[in-house]
Amino acid sequence: MTEHQAALLAKAKDSLRGAEIMAREFLYDIAVSRAYYAMFYCAEALLDAEGLKFSSHAAVVSSFGQHFAKIGRVPPELHRHLIQAQDSRLLGDYDAESPRSTEEAAKHIVRAREFIHLAERMLGESTGSA
Fold first, then answer.
1. How far apart are CA 109 and CA 36, in angstroms?
2. Which domain holds residue 49?
3. pLDDT number for residue 96
């Protein structure tokens, strides 16, 4: 794992921690946003391991699907989880009339945790280190 990939995973873990704190404080929109970012940073780290860098969220999400889910390197539902989290984050950030719920925040937090475990495992395996 490179220093950059490790830094992205550290940001993912911090974002997950932030999501958990915000959910405990009933700030579900922010919790969903942080859970999404935890997944996003993991996707960026995995793509970086392939020598791929992108400047937009849409490109990262799409490329994660193309380079990992579509060819079976990760379960396809993880790509769907990333897309759903991105959609929920956008609603939470920009739609004042549609707040996120405790259930939605909890769902994305669980999924973010799964993303982090997957990224740690895959990046550890790719370099031969843990």
1. 8
2. 3-127
3. 84
